[in-house]
Amino acid sequence: MVNPSDFKNGMTIEWEGELWSVVEFQQGQNARGDTFFRTKLRNVRSGAIIDQKFRDKDRFARARIEKVPMQYLYSDGDRHYFMDLASYDQLPLSDDQLGDAMKYLKESTSLDVLMYDGEPLGVELPTTVDLKVRETAPGYKGDTASGGGKPATVETGLTLNVPFFVNEGDVIRVDTRTGAYVERV
């Protein structure tokens, strides 16, 4: 059991029969000196985000989320297939379970699938991924690394802003947390 003073960003708890991930939390005190915690929680299954206030006396069961190393194989409509690297079993995940992760996945990508009591919840992407630029305006002599950018579409369909010197066919590193350009590879 954990109480709100033990919260960390990314921790998963069981509350009111649902799984919730702590997005952020803040400690405070009221006029009587009682400690309280303002939290922002994300429902692991639905993705809904709520603001909730807890007292220091509240207790929660910590959910044990298992990370299973898998490899993304292919998509078939709204089903996306992953292979367990230990047993070679294939596991289909839906668009709802993956959410925005599909913007960063290409075939043969290795990642962790999050499992709770044998039920797949979603995936945990690496911090950065390398993607090939499929479409962007051409770069010109004199374009520098600073001073603006241009839109580019990568091989997975994600559109992001890149520096002027990036051209079609370049491989770039993208931060999966923010969807932002990091560097040219």
Secondary-structure topology with pairs:
Layout lengths: L11 E4 L2 E12 L5 E9 L5 E7 L5 E2 L3 E11 L2 E6 L5 E5 H4 L11 E7 L2 E6 L3 E9 L13 E5 L4 E4 L8 E5 L4 E5 L1
Antiparallel strand pairs: 1-2, 1-5, 2-3, 3-4, 6-7, 6-9, 7-8, 9-10, 11-12, 11-14, 12-13, 14-15
Keywords:
185 residues; mainly beta; SH3 type barrels; OB fold (Dihydrolipoamide Acetyltransferase, E2P); 3 domains; flat
Characterise the protein shown here.
This protein is mainly beta and 185 residues long. The chain folds into 3 domains: 4-62, SH3 type barrels; 66-124, Nucleic acid-binding proteins (OB fold (Dihydrolipoamide Acetyltransferase, E2P)); 128-184, OB fold (Dihydrolipoamide Acetyltransferase, E2P), CATH 2.40.50. It has 1 helix and 15 strands, in the order E-E-E-E-E-E-E-E-H-E-E-E-E-E-E-E. Strands 4-3-2-1-5 form a 5-stranded antiparallel β-sheet, with no helix packed on it. The mean pLDDT is 88.
Strand content: over 45%
CATH class of the largest domain: Mainly Beta
Tally of domains: 3
Low-pLDDT stretches are: none
Give helix % range: under 10%
CATH structural fold name of the largest domain: SH3 type barrels
Shape verdict: flat
Count of alpha and pi helical runs: 1
Radius of gyration: 21 Å
Main sheet: strands, sense, barrel = 5 strands, antiparallel
SSE order: EEEEEEEEHEEEEEEE
- The overall pLDDT average reads 88
| Physical arrangement of strands within the biggest beta sheet | 4-3-2-1-5
> What is the end-to-end distance?
45 Å
